[in-house]
Amino acid sequence: MLTQITIPQIPHPPKAIIDRAKAIIETYNNGTADLAAAPDNAYIYNSGYADRVYHRNGVETKTRRQHVFSIGEDFEKWTADNIHPFAYEAGLSVSIPKGLPGQGPHCDLRRRYALNYILDCGGDNVRTLWYKEKGCPIERLHDSGPEGKSYWADYPDVEVIDDVVLGPGIWVLLNTRILHSVENIIGYRSFLTVSLPDMFQFPWNNRIPV
Fold first, then answer.
1. pLDDT tops 70 at residue 71
2. What's the pLDDT score for residue 25?
3. Which residue, 131, 209, 117, is CA-closest to 167?
4. Taking a C-beta distance cutoff of 8 angstroms, is the pair 92, 33 a contact?
5. Could you tell me the domains of the chain?
């Protein structure tokens, strides 16, 4: 089952878009960003999803979250023309708050697949892991879990099925309906991101990438 795959066939984003995103990222790094500003995806942080607490080796840890900001209609048009005709929520994603080490096992609430182009990894050993929760299917295809937790699970309840270090400057397709976490983050991890409803309408011969 697909957890993630790099897709070098997709072209790099235009330099103007990358430069615009990096200018925003610099405001986080130099301390001038408005950390209280609501992101464009603020609506997903409901029912405790942003405040969930994880346990591992007896230690209780809060989680980071991804704030997504629009960086212009030109990026949205570029993704529709170059990636997928029904791409949505194209923008810049920033991992906050900076002081927490990672984002615990979860599924994305708003999308089937994510396509990310990492700009800043957030550290030298940042790892993305996928999991199977004990007694549950690998893919969690409904909008929210019957357990009422919007499909997030604690570390003692999951087993690792994939573990990768993703590098910058290449598009990576992620199956966001499998529980996944991001570990060992130090700085502000940031990337251009696009939400996709399926894998069947990429521009190269309408084929699923292999």
1. yes
2. 96
3. 117
4. no
5. 4-30+61-196 (2.60.120.10)
